[in-house]
Amino acid sequence: MCPALEQAAIVLKDANNKDSARTFLEFVKGAVGRAILAKYGFAFPEKDQERGKKMTLRRSRAHG
User: Fold this and answer.
1) At residue 50, does pLDDT exceed 70?
2) Does 63 score more than 60 pLDDT?
3) Total domain count for the chain?
4) What own/partner pairs with CB < 8 Å and gap ≥ 24 does 29-37 have?
5) Phi, psi of 53 (to 5 degrees)
6) Does this model's pTM top 0.70?
7) Is residue 47 one of the residues assigned to a domain?
8) What's 23's DSSP letter?
9) Is the residue at 64 inside a domain?
10) 3-state secondary structure of 59
């Protein structure tokens, strides 16, 4: 089995619509967003809850 992929999400300082980007990230980090991502094999490392603005996801490469 291959190691997990790590993917991060941030709001760029020059983003055209920062409010929408922040709203989306908050949705993804919330219970509903996490449930959707978990359904597709993503997991949130426990340490991410302490990171604040940056969000990292892990996904097993073996997941279909």
Assistant:
1) no
2) no
3) 1
4) 29/55
5) -75, -35
6) no
7) yes
8) H
9) no
10) strand
For the sheet containing 42-43, what is the strand order? 5-9, 55-59, 42-43
Residue identified by tokens 């291959």 is 2
Cα 40–Cα 46–Cα 50 angle in degrees, nearest 5 = 120
Are 48 and 37 spatial neighbours (Cβ–Cβ below 8 Å)? no
Which stretches within the chain are classed as H helix?
Answer: 18-29, 31-39
What is the sign of the dihedral through the CA atoms of 58, 61, 62 and 64? positive
Range of the domain at 39: 5-59
What are the structure tokens assigned to 30, written together?
């919330």
CA distance 13 to 9: 13
